Amino acid sequence: MTRHFTTINELSSSDLREIYGLATSAFDDETLKGQGVALVFERPSLRTRASSSTAVHELGGFATFFSDEEIGLDRRESVEDVGRTLAEMYAIAALRVRDHAVFSRMREATADRLALINLLSDEAHPTQAVADVLTIAEHFARGDVEGLKGLEVAYVGDATNVTRSLAVALLRLGVNVTVGAPAGYQLVDSGDEDPSKVEGGGTLCLTNIAEEAVKGVDVIYTDSWISMGFEDQAHRRRDDLATFRVDEPLMALANADAVVLHCLPAHRGEEITDGVLDGPSSLAWRQVYHRRSAMRGVLRWIKEERT
Fold it and tell me: Could you give the CA distance from residue 267 to residue 151 in angstroms, rounded to a whole number?
């Protein structure tokens, strides 16, 4: 059976443990020998493209990049026909798309012949969540993801696809997650990557007060207030989210040894200050490192490797 990685929520706990283990364990540079991975990007990304292509190369394969201008999902060609074409030439396609429904449409069109990896959709960002878990585990538990149980993590700002996948991944590990966001920017119960559906594990709390969200936590996480596709709302978003900036006074409310994460790119001075992002508590660049680790783990899991 072909394996897919499109949300954290769809995977079993054992599959997730395998991915975390494969991400950081010794690897064979012939796992993808002679095989290509199609990278389809409707939305641009420095870190996603760099980490994906590097991971494929490290495993002995080659990556082919297709931009939105070349593919034009449902503009130049239907999602189904793009999937059918890629399935004739590749065993794996990793996609960064606007509409999460692309994955189910491609699966159906290709009769599950093409393994799909979600590099970002409007609902989920699961490869980022794996990188974030690896980063937090490296810092707090010597790399043991199971050692994160009971940790307190706060996400502050606009609750996006990143928030959803991160929350699902952490809750599954017994981490307590608080999301601080104003009305209209908070998590809602819907979609395939829904933290409210996680049973057992950690607790999920929602608040509209940033200070309440971060009080006594071990990790503060934030992301851009103006995600791709929302540029026309920039002025209003800056006003609505102004009190959710991660700055030195907000960091002071967390535990003394708390760390800060940001999936980048950062709009310095908006959602986070230079002093915090460049300060000793920042793990943002270690997150960048683990984007490659995460992709390597997902690819090895798709190829059914074992740790």
Answer: 27
Question: What pLDDT shows up at residue 233?
Answer: 85
Give the predicted TM-score (pTM) of the model.
0.97
13-125+291-302 topology per CATH: Rossmann fold (3.40.50)
pLDDT at residue 229 in the model: 72
E strand or H helix that includes residue 261: strand 259-262
Sheet with 152-156, strands from edge to edge, namely: 204-207, 176-180, 152-156, 219-222, 259-262
Q: What is the pLDDT of residue 88?
A: 98
DSSP secondary structure code for residue 31 in this structure: T
Quick count: other Cβ atoms within 10 Å of Cβ 278? 13
User: Could you confirm whether domain 128-287 is CATH 3.40.50.1370?
Assistant: yes
Residues of the chain with pLDDT under 50: none
Q: How far is CA 24 from the centre of its chain?
A: 17
pLDDT reported for residue 48? 98
Rounded Cα gap, residues 242 and 66, in angstroms: 37
Tokens representing 67? 């931009």
State the Cα–Cα distance between residues 38 and 60, nearest whole angstrom: 14
Number of Cβ atoms within 10 Å of the Cβ of 236 = 12
d(CA 133, CA 170): 7
Report domain extents, the chain: 13-125+291-302, 128-287
Of all helices (H) and strands (E), which one includes residue 94?
strand 92-96
Does this chain's domain 13-125+291-302 share its CATH topology with 128-287? Answer: yes
User: Distances from the Cα of 279 to the Cαs of 31, 260, 262, 284, 288, in angstroms?
Assistant: 38, 9, 13, 10, 16
Tens-place pLDDT, residues 284-299: 999 999 999 999 999 9
Kindly state the DSSP code that residue 208 receives in the 8-state scheme. S
